[in-house]
Amino acid sequence: MARRLRAVRTARGMSQTRLAELAGVSRNVISNLERNENAGRKPSDPQLSTVYRLAQALAVPPAALLPGVGERILHVCPPEELPVAMRWPADPADLRRFSPRHLALAEPGDEPEFVVPGGD
Q1: Which end of the chain is more exposed for a tag (fewer CB within 10 A), N or C?
Q2: pLDDT higher for 92 or 54?
Q3: Average pLDDT, the chain
Q4: What is the pLDDT of residue 37?
Q5: What would the DSSP string read from start to end of the chain?
Q6: Which pTM was predicted?
Q7: Rounded-to-integer distance, Cα 44 and Cα 67, Å
Q8: CB within 8 A of 78, min separation 6: which ones?
Q9: 83 falls in which pLDDT band (50, 70, 90)?
Q10: Pairwise CA distance, residues 34 & 5, whole Å
Q11: Could you count the other beta carbons within 10 Å of the beta carbon of residue 20?
Q12: 88 exposed, middle or buried (CB, 10 Å; 0-12, 13-18, 19+)?
């Protein structure tokens, strides 16, 4: 989840702080998830509600953040990246950057605004 979360967040042009604000979690939660670490130096283990909050703030399906979607889980924390059976991003537009206005002014739950390719 760490690599997926960081990849989507940076593709959206969003800082950890802004993602935390829009998802209603602390910036430390974002940092810990992206490093796959919690206070006890164990792998991060987010609540499902946190995954959904992050997915909403990033405008992605929750499964896009989770490893092993569509696979039978043999190990809780496998050492390698598991394949994802669902196809996301399905289109290059799925990873568009959020608009500067959205990054600066959006409130939690707002419909995202994206940068228009070739636009101002």
Answers
A1: C
A2: 54
A3: 83
A4: 74
A5: -HHHHHHHHHHTT--HHHHHHHHTS-HHHHHHHHHT--TTSSPP---HHHHHHHHHHHTS-GGGGSTTTTS--S-SS-SSPPP-SS--SSSGGGGPPBPHHHHHH--TTPPP-BPPTT--
A6: 0.73
A7: 13
A8: 67, 68
A9: low
A10: 6
A11: 20
A12: middle
**Whether CATH 1.10.260.40 fits 1-68:** yes
**C-alpha to C-alpha distance for 30 and 50, rounded to whole angstroms:** 10
Q: Do the Cβ atoms of 57 and 111 come closer than 8 Å?
A: no
Nearest C-alpha neighbor of 5 from the set 38, 42, 46: 46
Tokens of 54: 């992050």
The strand pairing partners of 114, in sequence order, are: 98
Sign of CA dihedral 83, 85, 86, 89: positive
Answer yes or no: is pLDDT of 61 > 70.
yes
Reference 9, options 98, 87, 92, 88; nearest CA is 98
Residue 13's identity, in one-letter code, is G
User: Residue 46 corresponds to which tokens in the numbers above?
Assistant: 């987010």
